[in-house]
């Protein structure tokens, strides 16, 4: 058994069943080991950002670590933007990055780089496994590091000679760090704030946005009148009809400030204190009112559900909150719009669908319109590195082949990782992608004004227009083997959406806004 | 004047005329300043790897620094693979990377990362410009750093408040470090080796592969019998009919060793000692024979041409070498092949074309067949980070609108930065791309065997096949506004190539191998 095989055996033994991969020469032994070992499914991506974004989507939906296989420093670099998103999503991901043989590094061959240096800014844990006999043990440590709460990014660098050299045994998974219990003082402090009669917000993230955390948060809200607000960007929210309704904190700074204004107590449950996504001249970075007291009830890596349970007990909050009613929408007609599309998606959403949303300027329409749709999971871009939607949808579909995936996707962002469509076709995934094709970086037009760059002229505005030439998304999708159709009216969109949700395998709708 | 404007003025003042950009919110002031200042052309890429690869191509052909505009850590990360290639090409590139406002960093907003840490592994020079008043001076220092020999990557990080704050004056370019003169002992040592009567190779890189370095190398070869061999991967080679012919050191280790076997003296002129691209079990890392003496005549950053001149003088080498004859090829017929395509390209190559080659398994055919074609520049992938071809061709075409660009491109590699086609269409660039569509990562099939992973089975081989589904390159190109055609026979390829070379603006040929 060589190092690579001990690595694959260790992954399989720890329940890491999927490896999203874009391998090169230095990873050939790992690839070869897949046939000998079994138990690890390898999913090919044609670009590393697809690989890492799919790992994120898989980890969010499978609730177990995803692994990736990447080729040296530049291959890892190509995947880092979505590693950043995965890390902000607290998705457990183990990156396996091949490197030159240890003795070859000093020759500074063309692909040589400081792989640890490349990994570090976006990893919580980095190790180079320099000895084939310790690869199994190092891999097991990487998996445990990724599984440590709240879910982490671990990067294991595997020199080629550690891969092909004689290995020791594959290693069992060491004990995984549990979520830390919340101190009784934090519970007591939160209870005091909620009993004060002053305006309070329970600010939710992570496990607080999924059952049973959500039910507990609902009880606390029903008992105390505290408002429930979710972070602006979340890894996964269980929502829709029959669930505790939670609004998202708006992205625009002014709207976020307005939402939180008058709040005396902000209780963080699996969330971080709300901050502006970007700084703008003359606008604050912190979004809660200056006089608001921020209480750390449970940090993202702590036992968030346990803290909510303790708080609900402490408050005697035993009654469930009213649940979200099913909303019926009549379908819209005429010219295509994001809001019309949101209404149509909300009406047609299959039960237990997975909604991946990277709609940017279209996000608000989708969030608000799907609130009363059939119950679903809602997956967002967590780190702001655009180009996550199509890979995220790909990974979510791999994790949950029993559920429909709908990807609501801005056109500009979709181009960064457009190659994900090919993996969807190759794997026959039931992903329906709606491209909100406004032929521009629409969000930047607003941002240009927000940052006070009002003197921008023709050249500046040309940097935000994608209409010369217009992208033909039907052509792009078909080029990668994905069936697709255009919709310029809402009637056409209804027909396309029906076709998409009925299709076996992926489908793309080019919605011409 | 704000910091951003002082930056743009500094760039324009130093002759940095093109900025390849994929901006976000934190770069809006820079973008707005473009209209007020003039003198800097901004070229939009829909993915950062396109931006940085185009900067490389521009810098190689324009012989002046290119600049890029990127958005925070993840945006920079997306561009790093081609920054790696640019650095290995010694292309002078100034990356300008926006970051959060200095005071906003501590809030750890979703897009926050250690931007300096992201930049460092692939930059020769990194600086964060924290004060709007010093942005001009910092930018001038960055440009000078990029221009320092042999050509470097400088990354300037620009926090949003340094961009929008009140600036000082734009700064003039400080003195640029000259190429270091080569010590007389190095010349004398090389001359002794060449006079020894023992077998010698002049191993050429950088300026030694362009006029007048090449002419001088030719004279030395004519006088002493030393063989001229170019590095395997070069930023730019002036070659074709009427020029001093130079063979490239082969990529496969065994072939490279054979080429250099029997060599007693290897003289490095603008090159590094030849090493295996990857390590393979039981194959050496160094490619020159163990008994061969390696002489450092001129390092890549030294005065390579001056050293060749001094050496030629020392040797009394005044006669020019025989120049490459024009070779005529008859066109091939029947089934499409890389070699047939190479013959056709060699026959049809316009005078002074720029050939960008990322053909991987097809590279040898193109290199050898174009040796006697019309004079041309030959641009290669220098750092091994695949996905450089289409961006490189884009940047080269921006730099030299007077010349035709032909991009000879492997299909798997092309997918990494496929978005470059859109920029070619938008800018109306005369780039003809030939996709060598073998529906596989063909090079990996050989590598699997080379690394000794011979036991690979069905799963492993599936990781190297891109045929399920096959990529339809005509559809992909048209989706980005690029005219395209398929060729399954050599007759069809001849017709397509003629159409491509005649077209105004970009054209893509999907060559079905």
TrEMBL record, chains A, B:
Thiamine pyrophosphate enzyme N-terminal TPP-binding domain boundaries: 1-106
GO MF term list: acetolactate synthase activity; flavin adenine dinucleotide binding; magnesium ion binding; thiamine pyrophosphate binding
Highest taxon listed in the record's lineage: Bacteria
Signal peptide: none
Matches recorded under InterPro entries: THDP-binding, Thiamin_PyroP_enz_TPP-bd_dom, TPP_enz, TPP_enzyme_TPP-bd
Keywords carried by this UniProt record: Thiamine pyrophosphate
Domain Thiamine pyrophosphate enzyme TPP-binding: 375-510
Homology family: Belongs to the TPP enzyme family.
Protein's UniProt name: Acetolactate synthase large subunit
Protein's organism: Rubrobacter marinus
């Amino acid at each position: 058994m060589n190092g690579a095989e001990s690595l694959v055996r260790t992954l399989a033994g720890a329940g890491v069943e999927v490896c999203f991969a874009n391998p090169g020469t230095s990873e050939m032994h790992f690839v070869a080991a897949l046939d000998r070992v079994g138990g690890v499914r390898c999913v090919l991506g044609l670009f590393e950002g697809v690989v890492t974004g799919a790992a994120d989507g898989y980890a969010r939906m499978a609730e177990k670590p995803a692994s990736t296989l990447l080729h040296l420093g530049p291959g890892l670099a190509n995947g880092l933007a979505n590693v950043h998103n995965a890390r902000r999503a607290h998705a457990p991901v183990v990156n396996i990055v091949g490197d030159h043989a240890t003795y070859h590094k000093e020759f500074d061959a063309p692909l040589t780089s400081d792989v640890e240096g490349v990994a570090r800014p976006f990893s919580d844990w980095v190790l180079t496994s320099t000895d084939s006999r310790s690869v199994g043990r190092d891999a097991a440590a990487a998996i445990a590091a990724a599984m440590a709460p709240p879910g982490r990014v671990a990067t294991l660098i595997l020199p080629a000679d550690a891969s092909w050299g004689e290995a020791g045994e594959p290693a069992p998974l060491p004990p995984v760090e549990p979520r830390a219990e919340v101190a009784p003082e934090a519970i007591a402090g939160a209870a005091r704030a909620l009993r004060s009669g002053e305006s309070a917000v329970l600010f939710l993230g992570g496990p607080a946005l999924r059952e049973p955390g959500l039910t507990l948060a609902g009880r606390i809200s029903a008992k105390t009148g505290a408002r429930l607000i979710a972070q602006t960007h979340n890894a996964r929210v269980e929502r829709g009809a029959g669930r505790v309704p939670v609004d998202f904190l708006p992205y625009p700074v002014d709207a976020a400030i307005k939402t939180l204004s008058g709040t005396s107590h902000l209780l963080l449950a699996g969330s971080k204190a709300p901050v502006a996504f970007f700084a703008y001249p003359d606008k604050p970075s912190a979004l809660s009112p200056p006089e608001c007291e921020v209480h750390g009830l449970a940090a993202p890596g702590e036992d968030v559900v346990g803290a909510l349970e303790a708080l609900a007990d402490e408050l005697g909050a035993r009654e469930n909150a009213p649940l979200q009613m099913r909303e019926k929408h009549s379908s819209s007609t005429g010219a295509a719009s994001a809001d019309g599309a949101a209404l149509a998606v909300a009406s047609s959403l299959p039960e237990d669908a997975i909604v991946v949303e990277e709609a940017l300027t279209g996000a608000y329409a989708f969030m608000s319109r799907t609130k009363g749709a059939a119950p679903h999971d809602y997956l967002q871009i967590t780190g702001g590195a655009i180009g996550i939607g199509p890979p995220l949808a790909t990974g979510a579909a791999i994790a949950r082949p029993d559920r429909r995936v709908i990807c609501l996707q801005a056109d500009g962002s979709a181009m960064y990782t457009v190659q994900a469509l090919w993996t969807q076709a190759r794997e026959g995934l039931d992903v329906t992608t709606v491209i909100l094709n406004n032929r521009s970086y629409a969000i930047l037009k607003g941002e240009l004004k927000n940052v006070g760059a009002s003197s921008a002229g023709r050249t500046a505005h040309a940097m935000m227009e994608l209409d010369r030439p217009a992208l033909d998304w039907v052509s792009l999708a078909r080029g990668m083997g994905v069936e697709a159709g255009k919709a310029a009216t809402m009637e056409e969109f209804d027909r396309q959406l029906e076709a998409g949700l009925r299709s076996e395998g992926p489908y793309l709708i080019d919605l011409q806004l």
